[in-house]
Amino acid sequence: MADVTALTFLALCLPLAGALAAPFVIRIFGANGAWLLAIAPLLAFLHFLRFIPQIARGEVVTGGYSWVPSYHLSFSWFLDGLSLAFALLITGIGTLIVLYAGGYLKGHKDQGRFFSFIFLFMGAMLGVVVSDSFLMLFVFWELTSITSFLLIGFDHEREAARRAALQALVVTGGGGLCLLAGLLLLWNISGVTEMSRLMGTGDVVRESPLYLAALILVLGGAFTKSAQFPFHFWLPNAMEAPTPVSAYLHSATMVKAGVYLLMRLNPVMGATSAWEILLPFFGGLTLVVGTALAIRQTDLKLKLAYTTVSSLGLLVMLIGFGSDHAVEAAALYLVAHSLFKGALFMVAGIIDHETGTRDITRLSGLRRAMPLTWMIALAAAFSMAGLPPFFGFLAKEEIYTALASGDVRALTFTAITVFGNALMFAVAFAVALKPFLGQPVETPKPPHEAPVLLWLGPAVLAVLGLLAAIFSTFTHAVLSSPIASAIRQTPVEIDISLTPHVGLPLALSALTVLLGIGVYWQLARARFLMAVFLRAAGPGPDHGFDVAISGLVRFSGRVMRVLQPGRLEIYVTCTFLCVAAILIVPLVVYGELPRLPAWPTDVRLHEWAVFLIAAFGLAAVLIARDRLTAIVSLGIQGFAVAIIFLLFGAPDLSFTQFMVETLSVVILALVMTRLRLSPDDQRPLGRKLFDGALALACGLGFTLLLMRATEAPFNDALTAFFNTYSKSIAHGANVVNVIIVDFRGTDTLGEIAVVAVTGLAILALIRIRAGSERKLATNDPAAEG
Fold first, then answer.
1. Sign of the CA dihedral 259, 261, 267, 268?
2. With CB atoms counted within 10 Å of each terminal CB, which end of the chain scores lower, N or C?
3. Do the bridges between strand 61-68 and strand 73-79 make them parallel or antiparallel, or are there none, so unpaired?
4. Where does the chain cross the membrane (predicted)?
5. Element (H, E) at 402
6. In angstroms, rounded to a whole number, what is the distance separating the alpha carbons of residues 339 and 311?
7. What per-residue string of b and e applies to 404-441 under the rule 16 or more CB within 10 Å gives b?
């Protein structure tokens, strides 16, 4: 067991090791270094592959390391059919993407940096799907947002890439904060912080009055990450990233994180009216919006991106539908979509890489120059269209089996699904046929077949989509059924195969194909009608995002002009107002004001003299006619306090007070001589009275707080501890010195460092000012800058 835990931890760390090694490997081996870098995800894939027999038997694998046991925080993982399937997709497709990126970005000056980013994302995504701990899940969830920001904005010199990266970060990062709040509520409701233990608390969570709030917050995290309407706009804009990013993040991994979360929480939060209303509604709406917008596009990647949005909507709709067949359909479609969409994105990248364009209206007749790419595109398109003998056909049949029934709700969502699948059929063959059929046309680059690094990945995924359907019994046993079992938390056996079953699902599949062929036949007209409809509909969520960000920037600017006007006196006044309020208000509100002390009768003459000196010093500060006199007079109070410390048996503290007061007076006097200030106080009487009242309030607050603190019974535990151990442990007789130097050594070091840095900053400012004055005195033009 310990060996399995250590190996799993190593497998989770392999992508991070790849991120560290990538720049050096690419610098040494160039594009061929992709073969070496692909070993890291491949080894992780092989490690997770070992768990298939165990997971297929219905077992789970847990492990990890305790971090803060008192708060139930740990670095732990939980592998069942769902998380194992995602881990295999992430590492398996990740291996192919690393190879693909080696060919796609060959010769790019920042290829090493790109591989580091893709490996960091791979590690973060792997952490999301295997996390057992809530904290670990949230940390990796946010890391996927950060690393995707780096990948989408990889071509940071282009404004469009920077905007898309920022948009993805804002949307998914904001959703991550919602998820954090939702996880905290789940912790509060269930009392557990591990996914594996949360699975058994479904009734407790669903019956809690906080259930709806937790659900909405969790959906906020899932919907933003998986691009559900109205948050769908960030995913197509993310196509500004290089194609390897699109093929990996936005088809098989990151955008499915929200789907994973909903599948994982289905046993806990599912089977409620809110779950079965919200998820199908937003999922169905996203399905329709995504496919309709895909028809309008002419860019190959954008067409695929919008169908990814629609596919995610279909998955969310199935998860929320609630039936056994819906869960089975979601499990099948999850795998099918990862295979065919990853392949088609890479095909789009090959076309762009080898012809110089992705515009479908400028591509034709590529089948002769790129026959292998065409075969791969056709295979993936058949699966996306739901045609046999590919795995997408099995998924589509199971979807119609799940949805088709006689009630109004089922009929509505069946119609939505048929419409969406028909449009996806048309888009699939628009990508797979339009660029390859017809007469060859001139393209920016002469077309030719791609090198092996580019076609290997999509070829493997397309072939897997075929083999998974042909050997469906094996596929279901090791992959599909364990996924559905994990979602349902009960054993599920999926048995759908390529053997046709005459019935309503097959009839709906035939209807989908006929509608898809009709849309494909009139694709140009459909694109035109959709463009007209969108113009009539007005600005969409993407424009709304720009308006929101612009408004936020303007609002922030106005707030900053109020809170940060650049005047030190305002900052100091606000600080002391807060200090006075924090000190006085709680004492008054909670009735903690101290009792008035008895007037002392045993004060000696020399002690009265010290108090009188402090009072005279205060009077000198108030009546001083210039600032330098006030600063020097200010030191009188400090010296008087130091004498009091000395009289009451604290020589070390007294010495420190003498040093602080001396340095304060010297530094303030030095700084004041360098600043161009009027020699006397120019404040009006009202301002002086306000500042005086504020000073009295702060002084009164500290006085009341200290008096209240001294009323409490004295706890001498620390005194006894230091008296006991100062000599035996720290070998020092002076307890105060031992506390400062040994027991609080790090604290003292930090204080010294702060003082040293402050002194250096003051010295630098003085020298800069003195240098500028000398240059101005000599009429040096450089001083004016």
1. negative
2. C
3. antiparallel
4. 31-49, 85-105, 112-129, 166-190, 210-235, 277-295, 304-323, 329-351, 372-391, 411-433, 453-478, 498-521, 568-588, 608-624, 631-649, 655-677, 689-707, 748-766
5. helix 391-403
6. 13
7. beeeeeeeebbebbbbbbbbbbbbbbbbbbbbbeeeee
* Residue 194 φ then ψ, to 5°: -125, 140
What global pTM score does this model have? 0.80
Residue matched to tokens 């399937």: 85
Other C-beta atoms within 10 Å of 717: how many? 7
User: Which stretches of 76-110 are DSSP H helices?
Assistant: 81-104
Closest among 138, 150, 145 to 173, alpha carbons compared: 145
334 contacts 85 by C-beta, under 8 angstroms: yes
Run of H or E including 39: helix 39-49
Q: Residue 590: exposed, middle, or buried by beta-carbon count in 10 A (0-12, 13-18, 19+)?
A: exposed
Note if the bond before 209 is cis, omega within 30 degrees: no
Residues 614/591, Cβ–Cβ less than 8 Å: no
Contact 408, 350 (CB under 8 A): no
Q: Out of 281-285, 374-378, 615-619, which region has the weakest mean confidence (pLDDT)?
A: 615-619
d(Cα 225, Cα 231) in Å, to the nearest integer? 9
- Paired tokens of 143: 């890391």
DSSP secondary structure letters along 253-280 = SGGGHHHHHHHHHHHHH-SSHHHHHHHH
Q: What residue spans of 592-714 are helical by DSSP H?
A: 605-623, 627-647, 651-674, 685-711
Q: Which backbone phi and psi does 688 adopt, to 5 degrees?
A: -65, -40
Q: Report the chain's C-alpha Rg in angstroms.
A: 35
Residues in the chain: 785
Percent of all residues in the chain with a pLDDT value above 90, rounded to a whole number? 45
Tokens found for residue 240: 């500004």
Q: Are 22 and 31 in contact (CB under 8 A)?
A: no
Q: What is the DSSP letter of 195?
A: H
Sequence-distant (≥ 6) Cβ neighbours of residue 477 within 8 angstroms: 56
**637 vs 386: which has the higher pLDDT:** 386
**Burial (CB count <10 Å: 0-12, 13-18, 19+), residue 3:** exposed
